[in-house]
Amino acid sequence: MLTVIGKATSINVRKVLWTCTELGLPFVREEWQDGHAALNPNRMAPVLVDDGFVLWESNTICRYLCERHAGASLWPAEARARARVSQWMDWQATELNTAWRYAFMALVRSSPAHRDPALIEAGIAGWNRHVGLLDAHLGDNGPWIAGAGFSLADIVLGLSVNRWLMTPMARPDYPHVAAWYARLGERPGFGAWCGNGVA
Fold first, then answer.
1. List of residues 6+ apart from 113 with CB closer than 8 A
2. What pLDDT was estimated at residue 70?
3. Is the dihedral of CA 159, 48, 89, 104 positive or negative?
4. Fewer CB near the terminus (10 Å): N or C of the chain?
5. Which pLDDT does position 34 carry in this prediction?
6. Where is the GST N-terminal domain (predicted)?
7. What pLDDT shows up at residue 186?
């Protein structure tokens, strides 16, 4: 039995839980406790424990689960197809997450450290610009992020777009993103881990 450590409202934990659901993997989830700090030097969730094997970093956990549990439908075996999925997963973790962080912390988390109006506006603009890049990509290369098939890239970016849609701010109309997000709603696990009212 897999153990996923971290709160179910965490966007990074939900990546792992959605991946488990897509792969049909049974798991138990544990809330993060001080005792779990020994499992991850960063003291952050999620952490996966698989028969004594401990792993952290959400995108790495998702890739590992596919490699260990015959998840080629989500994580292709062919090198170029796999690289395309990995490329968009890394873009989500670096470029997109960096773009939304300040605005999200201000508008959703109400962080006292994120109160500068100019930085909030810049964050909104950068966030919208990045989703616009995704929209253009889907328009040219859809129906899914990495092409013809649903993959891990759709899981991690689906959660990011869910966060974008749920944050109280002005957003452009991106029709390709909207159509793709509607398709995500048909996937196993979407309702529990993405379209569940949690940003």
1. 105
2. 85
3. positive
4. N
5. 86
6. 1-73
7. 96
